[in-house]
Automatic annotation (TrEMBL):
One of its GO terms (molecular function) is DNA binding. The lineage of its organism: Bacteria, Pseudomonadati, Pseudomonadota, Gammaproteobacteria, Moraxellales. CDD domains: LuxR_C_like, REC_NarL-like. It comes from Acinetobacter gerneri DSM 14967 = CIP 107464 = MTCC 9824. This is Response regulatory domain-containing protein. Residues 2-119 form the Response regulatory domain. One of its GO terms (biological process) is phosphorelay signal transduction system.
Length: 216
């Protein structure tokens, strides 16, 4: 079993690795700390059997990485592992395609339980979650935005995240080692796919997928 952990906190990655090894000693565990590293591993290496994904990552905006990766790799099971324990956040994660949600305060035994259940095709949720919680899709505006995010190519997604960070086209071109003309073409395509007309509108759109922007 090949498990990929995506979290930018080294201490928590280490703790999560130990918890996974305790429950699944035969698992092959790999780790990345940012969205760009995550995509590079998915694009250049064998697809993992399971991803444990933090929501707060460099190069991502809230649920955006989850939304986009689920579209690019629809058969890849993803369990969100997050410090956020609000029911509304768990609802949104499941609505956007996560197969499980493990709060970072969870007992280590829950990690192995969650992994086994998700690999069997089931959804795993924290045991203390209210029994009457609904996991219907989100409101139409966020669902429509998620669909637009899903239509972006991986490179367009990277560019959009850099735009959201405030980088100029020439700075993005330097970071991605491509021409500024290429970035301009990507930005034009991103605006078209998101249904926006400028960088400010694009940033406002992506911010709708932030953790604290909207509540159920």
């Amino acid at each position: 079993m090949n498990i990929l952990i995506v979290d930018d906190h080294p201490l928590f990655r280490h703790a999560l690795i130990q918890a996974v090894r305790y429950s699944l000693p035969q698992a092959q565990i790999h780790e990345t700390a940012a969205v760009n590293e995550f995509y590079e591993r998915l694009e250049n290496g064998p697809e993992p059997d399971l991803v444990l994904l933090d929501l707060n990552l460099p190069g991502a905006s809230g649920f955006s990485a989850l939304v986009h990766v689920r579209a690019q790799y629809p058969s890849l099971p993803i369990i969100v592992v997050s410090a956020h324990e609000e029911t509304s956040i768990i609802q949104r994660a499941i609505a956007h395609g996560a197969m499980g949600y493990i709060p970072k305060s969870a007992h280590p035994s829950h990690i192995g339980e969650a992994i086994r259940q998700v690999l069997e095709g089931e959804i795993w949720l924290p045991p203390n979650l209210p029994a009457n919680v609904s996991f219907d899709p989100r409101a139409a505006d966020e669902t429509a935005l998620a669909e637009r995010i899903q239509s972006l190519t991986p490179q367009q997604f990277r560019v959009l995240m850099m735009v959201a960070e405030g980088l100029l086209n020439k700075q993005i071109a330097y970071e991605l080692d491509v021409s500024e003309a290429t970035i301009k073409a990507h930005v034009t395509a991103i605006f078209r796919k998101l249904g926006v007309q400028n960088r400010t509108q694009a940033v406002l759109a992506i911010n709708a997928l932030n953790i604290d922007e909207k509540k159920i």
